[in-house]
Amino acid sequence: MTRIDRRYFILGGAAAAGSLVLSSSATAAPLNPFRLGVASGDPAPTSVVLWTRLAVRPLNADGHGGMPRKPIAVQWQVATTARFSRIVASGTVNARWADAHSVHVIARGLQPGAVYYYRFRAFGQISPVGRTRTAPAAGTFGPDLRIAVASCANYENGYYTAYRRIAEENPGLVLFLGDYIYEESGSPGRVRSHAGGETVTLADYRRRYAQYRTDPDLRAAHAAAPWLVVPDDHEVENNYAKLVRANSRPALTAAQWRARRAAAYRAYYENMPLRSASFYRRVGWGRLATFHMLDTRQFRDDQPCGDYWKVCAAADAPNRTITGAAQEKWLLDGLARHYGTWDVLGQQVFFARYADEAGAANMDAWDGYRGARDRLQRGWLQRGVRNPLVLTGDVHAALANDLKLDYRDPGSATIGTELICTSVSSNGDGTALREVPWPGVNPHIRHYSERRGYTMVTIGQERIRADFRVLPRVSRPGAPVSTNASFVVEAGRPGLHRV
After folding, report:
1. Residue 3 burial by Cβ neighbours in a 10 Å radius (0-12, 13-18, 19+)
2. For residue 71, how many C-alpha atoms fall within 13 Å in the half-sphere facing its CB?
3. How far apart are CA 4 and CA 480, in angstroms?
4. What is the rounded distance in angstroms from the CA atom of residue 340 to the CA atom of residue 236?
5. Which of 77, 216, 292, 396 is the Cys-Cys partner for 423 at CB 3.0 to 4.6 Å?
6. What is the C-alpha to C-alpha distance for residues 82 and 428, in angstroms, rounded to an integer?
7. What percentage of the chain exceeds 90 in pLDDT?
8. Rounded CA gap, 87 and 73, in Å?
9. How many CA atoms lie within 13 A of 111 on its CB side?
10. Pairing of strands 227-229, 173-176
């Protein structure tokens, strides 16, 4: 690894002569290659992933952001202070045309449980500064961990005030649980517009991510803390399952659909602070918590009974899977190891039972895969998992659920907790409704809210606390945030307690 002198990094050295300019004129202003900001993610005790993507014209239709067809040397630094007075890691990496000039740096040799600051330099210009942190050392707890949990950020449906408020909360970690972008275009009642039509090609997806990253509130949330991310369906196409489409428009051949799916996941990796393109993974946080990040989209069986809300006996088939057999085994094996006090499942779709009075439920959620849910719940009981916590996105509403051994029996044992964050912007402003739907059928649902926002989850050795943070509107920017419900779960005693 090349050490870079702090003064040389700031002044630019000889490389400053290579600044990207609008024309060959010596008086032309240099373009900013860091318009998409910076990010970090997947923290470990001694390393963390640092990300940026160079783009001077982010909305260019070819998806390459106005960058030249050549590799660009990008320098990076990690320091213990925001002024970079003590640099602890540095180096140079090439941003390649083939990767849309995105870079993934694994900054190594860091101290466990520490806060760091990072930045990049290219074309003689310096990026914004990001703040990140490492996980505690194995066998240690570290301080309580404050997590912002978010999902579902349709650019057309509203402004990203929730991201700004997340940045202001100064969390230790952000979990983003799917639908970071939306593939469709021209949403009814939109307050902002996607560039281009529905995303199909790699260029389309690259441009869509670039447009989202031009939002200053989103960039602020990425710069505030490391992220753990998983995709859901809209990063590819609404409600798709494994290799099966749920839509007929745009019309695609089987080969075109496979190419679209591959392009979508390539663009997702290019634009996220991930260690690899394998999305289900485990991230340890010392003895405090283990994050089991799931992929419930790429390996699932097709939704039964034609998808959507149905009364569907086929959903009870014992061999149905939402994770695929390999991932299910990986998850249960990991749960058996008891790495941390809390086993946190970061995943995409409604986990607990959620039905109407006729027994209809959402076939795209775990209710369409009831055998898989039962195997997992009984599996963690058999393995002695004391503190399972399921964190969920997708629903566009905030819910707090007691997880039951048998959802049809209200007196059944409570065996875990599910916290569902609402959406960042999807479905617009939402309503003030807070009544639990069909409470006689869903007594395990302890909280419901249709406002936009996110959930702040504080994980401690003895308890977790969940604060549901809500916004009155996203149709206009700048809304204040407030808490409309809070719950505590005690370690070793499953069940939500309102505070």
Report:
1. exposed
2. 9
3. 42
4. 33
5. 396
6. 36
7. 93
8. 20
9. 10
10. parallel
Over range 356-376, report the average pLDDT. Answer: 97
Q: How many helices (H) and strands (E) does the chain have?
A: 7, 24
As beta bridge partners, residue 115 has 133
Q: Are strands 125-126 and 87-95 parallel, antiparallel or unpaired?
A: unpaired
Closest to 204 (Cα-Cα) out of 270, 274, 273, 263: 263
Structure tokens at 250: 């745009």
| Residue 23 in this model has a pLDDT that exceeds 80 | no
Residue pair 448/437 in contact (Cβ under 8 Å)? The answer is yes
Nearest-angstrom CA–CA distance, 236 and 230: 12
pLDDT tens per residue across span 118-171: 999 999 999 999 999 999 999 999 999 999 999 999 999 999 999 999 999 999
Are the C-beta atoms of 108 and 19 separated by less than 8 Å? no
Mean pLDDT of 196-214: 98
User: Token pair of 259, please?
Assistant: 């190419």
Q: 444-469: per-residue pLDDT in tens? A: 999 999 999 999 999 999 999 999 99
Quick one: how far is CA 40 from the chain centroid? 12
Q: What is the DSSP letter of 108?
A: -
State pTM to two decimals. Answer: 0.95
Q: Are 398 and 343 in contact (CB under 8 A)?
A: no
